[in-house]
């Protein structure tokens, strides 16, 4: 099988870590019978400054027509609003209908308190439909601002179904003998339906229904109110396997969970739709460390693995996860964000060698 992968480095350290992502794909063992073709694509703030658009139509078109998946580095956003500029990754998620943001948060098994969870965030609706308005209060008490929180059955059902599929896939990997802190699949539905009985209520009941499907009969399903979820996530993160959440809660939980493993430089994600996935490290363009060859490439290498999982190349993904874990467990070649002194290039070489 030949997979065609779009490479969108973006800005800052995106330009340093995406080449590492390409190299690990090229270094996968020949026994997997996987070949890759790469297409270099533009997006980001530099692209905006050079061409006047942050996400050229050509990038979207090539991704749609020619690619099986993509890797996205990071983009810089100006601190003050710049006319005509808006985030290309947000636009890409929309244009390619990448309705799920999937973020695995995993420590090494040898950690004092190992954790291994995946947060599955709905990516198309909720408060992020950005339907806001501001008006003057009728009673003269000043301005009032409102935002629409939109939850649909269709979006809730497909995100919960994806969470169920991920739970099953993780169990399959455990059944094949991969060591894990979990023994059975569990999906935790996150909401605040005690207060928002209609919107979050719909998310809750629809998720429940989707996960009641016969093929998920082996998957445990529980729910948790989002505020107590934050508490438990920080106190007992090891209890979570797969978490499914509407857009806003998912955004907050996934950044919070990233803090549990020590560095942004370790945490991957993927934006997933029907038959397409974009791997994306969860960090930004990190202008403070760019150009020094010290960015941690692991978030990107793991994002390559997450992308591969959603392109049904689970074996290839497992090999990348294992090579990364071996590097971390040995702990000799670590980047400065993990307390080490190794260069990006040295870490990449070490992981490629283990692969
Ligand atoms: P950031 O994630 O770029 O950096 C936060 C801190 O983490 C910095 O100290 C940075 O050096 C460190 N860091 C991040 N990734 C690292 C890695 N791979 N290895 C080692 N250290 C790493 O977030 P920040 O500073 O808030 O934003 C910088 C720029 O990135 C802004 O223009 C922001 O808009 C953009 N950004 C883009 C994102 C995206 O493209 N998805 C996400 C977050 C921020
Ligand atoms: Mg976020």
From TrEMBL:
Q: Name one Pfam family in it.
A: Iso_dh
Q: In which pathway does it act?
A: Amino-acid biosynthesis; L-lysine biosynthesis via AAA pathway; L-alpha-aminoadipate from 2-oxoglutarate: step 4/5
* Cofactors named for this entry: Mg(2+)
Reaction(s) catalysed by this chain's protein: (2R,3S)-homoisocitrate + NAD(+) = 2-oxoadipate + CO2 + NADH
| Sample GO molecular function, one term | magnesium ion binding
SUPFAM superfamilies the record matches: Isocitrate/Isopropylmalate dehydrogenase-like
Q: What protein does this entry describe?
A: homoisocitrate dehydrogenase
Species in which this protein is naturally found: Coleophoma cylindrospora
